[in-house]
Design a protein that fits this description.
The complex is a heterodimer.
Chain A: H1 4-15, E1 19-25, H2 31-44, E2 48-52, H3 63-74, H4 79-92, E3 98-102, H5 104-110, H6 112-122, E4 126-129, H7 141-146, E5 150-151, E6 154-155, H8 164-168, E7 175-178, H9 191-202, E8 209-212, H10 218-225, E9 230-233, H11 235-243, H12 255-271
Parallel strand pairs in A: 1-2, 1-9, 2-3, 3-4, 4-5, 6-7, 7-8, 8-9
Helix pairs in contact in A: 2-4, 2-12, 4-6, 10-12, 11-12
Chain B: E1 18-19, E2 22-26, H1 32-46, H2 49-63, E3 69-71, H3 73-79, E4 83-87, H4 98-111, E5 116-121, H5 125-137, E6 140-146, H6 147-152, H7 154-162, E7 166-170, H8 177-190, E8 195-197, H9 208-216, H10 218-231, E9 237-242, H11 246-252, E10 262-270, H12 280-283, E11 285-289, E12 291-296, H13 321-329, E13 333-338, H14 339-353, H15 359-371, E14 380-384, H16 393-404
Parallel strand pairs in B: 4-14, 5-6, 5-8, 6-7, 9-10, 9-14, 10-13
Antiparallel strand pairs in B: 1-2, 2-12, 3-4, 11-12
Helix pairs in contact in B: 2-4, 3-14, 4-5, 4-9, 5-7, 9-11, 10-11, 14-15
The chains are: A alpha/beta, B alpha/beta.
Organism (chain B): Bradyrhizobium arachidis
Cofactor (chain B): pyridoxal 5'-phosphate
Keywords (chain B): Amino-acid biosynthesis, Aromatic amino acid biosynthesis, Lyase, Pyridoxal phosphate, Tryptophan biosynthesis
Chain lengths: 278, 405
């Protein structure tokens, strides 16, 4: 079965360029602004959208993304509303791949089967669930694959060659390589180390490999784009959003544009990169 | 719930770390290789007589074990029912049961060649035990503690600093134990190559709930032997307080397959079960947090809710997964005691026995005050006195003086 993610990466490969993957938090700072931001991302150059599911205790995220989640929750965001946001986004855009990224508990409480059915209907293409390693594949990964959703797994610098096959076994859509051992928004790994890691993972899979954690500037995005099939930017966009808010943390007239403008600049960086010869 | 009874309550977890539906390994990929390494190292250490012998040496001469099983004569007379024995874990070096587990984990860390130890702490007892053993073995020690807890547990913060540990007050979320655990996990993800995460209770990803339980089981094993020596038979009931539940699991586990022994775990009911509390079993349901599936306090959307207890050590929205299983399977009875009940018990034990308990085991004493009078005089009840109250003296003093005004 071909998903929007598969189609998008096939197109990009044909065009000879790397993907630009953006991450924003659903409902940050409020549902309406968040929907407008998500709608603006493809126009600004995002090839794939990752949409964060807010959670009170995001153990693998840094302070920026944790604060974004708490802003959204404070304004009443829920998993149900996150799916509504996706449904509204799909009214105007039926091609941009959209991946939900978050932690397992809200999904577990929503009910796995109901969540997968609702997510599929809403127009979600894939899931990245940070706290579900392959050892817990029965929980959500296998049911998600059966439901026709991609399950995108994180590979990290600690994932050695012995473990990689287990990590890749049920992964689909793309592989998300976390360039550093650390939380989101931390310092970036150097592009050469990333290049070596991407080459190592490529020996084990034909899936596209996107690299994230620590990419903040068009130059950094470009350097990663030369080594990988995609670069992911999250914290920098979340920070741009936060800096546009008023003193009470509410959206202003600048908020949607602040995210869109940075997205456009980063997308230029990625599109200017030459893909490494395979 | 219809769950088949196992042949043994002591055989868990399964090879994937599950106690029934509870437990498991719900962590970021960065940590998985480390957790698998830890499991391997623990399995090897358990089978190594040299590891056991070295541990036993430190338990005896550094920790001060065995801890006494003391007949609380005046408390027994006062309550007028069961014969009450206190398992004196507060007499251990560092003043609580926490040192049993920390010793085990630090010895594992040394076997694994790790030089940097991180820990999270609520009341500070686990932090103090970790700082102590890091000092003893010359290891770098970093302790994460919620900013609220740093305020209310000053004596332990000062102790940790004197022992050479760095204490980081955590400002995120509710600024208590839950957030300290998040922060410790973030540190571990970032410094995975040289760092050992010393978890303070029977929670977290497999194999932590198991290895912490095993290290704490010395409490129940000693109790069994001591009760045989004193009374010539098994106790009839056991009572222990539960935050994450390590002191309780340590006392309970060796008795789980003795059907004549009634077992009671006491959660913190805070202001009451319909208000702010920390009773995950009484007021929560199964969910996934901090690496395991277990009973959690959360809202209808799966967002974790704030816990509250007068006792920083019980102020956590979850509980160890094995407790969740023992609850569902009906082997252990889980009760709860409010802040006020714990304070009353704190004063009663201090005045009757000359033992100032920590606020955590004061919750267990509070339920003993209810349970003991209903039992016959030949009923043998053991309460785990998991920690001493020095750390709580300033806090309780303020509350009592405030009340008397």
């Amino acid at each position: 079965m071909t998903t929007r993610i598969d189609t998008r990466f096939a197109e990009l490969k044909k065009a000879g360029r790397s993907a630009f993957v953006t991450y924003v938090m659903a409902g940050d700072p409020d549902l309406t602004t968040s929907l407008n931001i998500v709608k603006a991302l493809p126009k600004a150059g995002a090839d794939v959208i990752e949409l964060g599911i807010p959670f009170t205790d995001p153990m693998a995220d840094g302070p920026s993304i944790q604060a974004a989640g708490l802003r959204a929750l404070k304004n009443g965001m829920t998993l149900k509303k996150t799916l509504e946001l996706v449904r509204d986004f799909r009214k105007d855009d039926n091609v941009t791949p959209l991946v939900l990224m978050g932690y397992y508990n809200p999904i577990y409480i929503y009910g796995v089967d109901k969540f997968l059915a609702d997510a599929k209907t809403a127009g979600v293409d894939g899931l990245i669930i940070v706290d579900l390693p392959p050892e817990e594949d029965d929980e959500l990964c296998i049911p998600a694959l059966k439901a026709g959703l991609n399950f995108i797994r994180l590979a990290t610098p600690t994932t050695d060659d012995k473990r990689l096959p287990a990590v890749l076994a049920n992964t689909s859509g793309f592989v998300y390589y976390v360039s550093i051992a650390g939380i989101t928004g931390a310092a970036a790994a150097d592009a050469n180390a990333v290049g070596a890691a991407v080459a190592r993972i490529k020996r084990h899979t034909k899936l596209p490999i996107c690299v994230g954690f620590g990419i903040r500037t068009p130059e950094a995005a470009r350097a990663i784009a030369e080594k990988a099939d995609g670069s992911v930017v999250g914290t920098a966009l979340v920070d741009a959003l936060k800096n546009s808010l008023d003193a009470e943390g509410r959206a202003t007239a600048k908020t949607v544009n602040a995210v869109a403008e940075l997205t456009a600049a980063l997308a230029q960086g990625v599109k200017g990169a030459k893909q490494a010869a395979e | 719930m219809n769950i088949a009874k196992p042949n043994s309550y002591r055989s868990g977890p399964d090879e994937r770390g599950h106690f029934g539906i509870f437990g498991g390994r719900f962590v970021a990929e960065t940590l998985m290789p480390l957790i698998l390494d830890l499991e391997k190292a623990y399995t090897a250490a358990k089978a190594d007589p040299a590891f056991q012998a070295e541990m036993n040496g430190y338990l005896k001469n550094y920790v001060g074990r065995p801890s006494p099983l003391y007949f609380a004569e005046r408390l027994t007379e006062h309550l007028g029912g069961a014969k009450i024995y206190l398992k004196r874990e507060e007499l251990n070096h560092t003043g609580s049961h926490k040192v049993n587990n920390v010793l085990g984990q630090i010895m594992l860390a040394r076997r694994m060649g790790k030089k940097r130890i991180i820990a999270e702490t609520g009341a500070g007892q686990h932090g103090v035990a970790t700082a102590t053993l890091c000092a003893r073995f010359g290891l770098e020690c970093v302790v994460y503690m919620g900013a609220v807890d740093v305020e209310r547990q000053q004596p332990n913060v000062i102790r940790m600093e004197m022992l050479g540990a760095k204490v980081f007050p955590v400002q995120s979320g509710t600024r208590t134990l839950k957030d300290a655990m998040n922060e410790a996990l973030r540190d571990w993800v970032t410094n995975v190559h040289n760092t050992f995460y010393c978890i303070g209770t029977v929670a977290g990803p497999h194999p932590y709930p198991t290895l912490v339980r095993d290290f704490q089981s010395i409490i129940g094993n000693e109790t069994k032997t001591q009760m045989q020596e004193i009374e010539g038979r098994l106790p009839d009931s056991l009572v222990a307080c539960i935050g994450g539940g390590s002191n309780a699991m340590g006392l309970f586990h060796p008795f789980l397959d003795d059907p004549s022994v009634e077992i009671f775990g006491v959660e913190a009911a805070g202001h009451g079960l319909t208000q702010l509390h920390a009773a995950s079993i009484a007021g929560g349901r199964p969910g996934v947090l901090h690496g395991n599936r277990t009973y959690l306090l959360m809202n209808e959307d799966g967002q974790i809710q704030d816990a509250h207890s007068i006792s920083a050590g019980l102020d956590y929205p979850g509980i160890g997964p094995e407790h969740s299983w023992l609850h569902e399977i009906g082997r252990v009875n889980y009760l709860s005691a409010t802040d006020d009940e714990a304070l009353a018990a704190f004063q009663l034990l201090s005045r009757l026995e000359g033992i100032i308990p920590a606020l955590e085991p004061a919750h267990a004493i509070a339920k003993v005050m209810e349970l003991a009078p209903k039992r016959p005089k030949d009923h043998l009840m053991v309460v785990n006195l998991s920690g001493r109250g020095d750390k709580d003296v300033p806090q309780v003093g303020d509350i009592l003086r405030g009340k008397s005004k």
